[in-house]
Design brief:
about 240 residues, globular, three-stranded antiparallel β-sheet
Length: about 240
Amino acid sequence: MKRSGLITTKIGMTRLYDDGGIAHPVTVLSVGDCTVIGNRTMEKNGYVANVLGMREAKAKHVAKPQAVAAEKAGIKPFRKVAEFRVSDDCVIPAGTVLSASHFVVGQFIDVQATSKGKGFQGAMKRHNFGGKEASHGVLKAHRSIGGTGMREWPGRVLKGKKMAGQMGNETVTVQNLKVFGIDEAENLIFVEGAVPGANGTFVLVTDAVKKEHKDLPVPTKLNSVAEEAPAAETVAE
């Protein structure tokens, strides 16, 4: 069984207390208007997946391929669209509005988001280099990385060499975070620990792939289904 994930937005961090009065740092994720906008099928696409969208937007505010696909499918365009591959028993009909109750308190999840961009940084900050000596003849090179080249062969800097450069602003996945709580009224998920990305970042949340799960709603805990949305609609390529 492989269930669908959710598209959420990061609200920020706070603390919650358990029954023993111990404070836990948690990240608040908002499910918002996360909706199933289509499905991928084995017959047409060669794999099975749910296509989810979040935060409705005007057609002029999204990429043209997304606007055209939404128009062909007869739905409104969404600012964020993502696919989640699922098993055959976890296909969710198009038009289904998902909720925070898709996950269960105590289960483990994996989260994926774009990390905060930190600009151009040196090797000590970016790669945790130790730097050079503070004395013994070292002059104005305390934070430099030292030699990077070779001798006659290969005579170049190899790809992947740890050097100064842009730090952050990359896709980061954090595994095995625990769902500390669910707020069904506000459609919020409280995740114990830190989640990558700045506040307002889209975060993809799925069941943890390295953990076993029991008593999860399959395919999801249904909230509502749009009346006019066709159940078997497939988003056009």
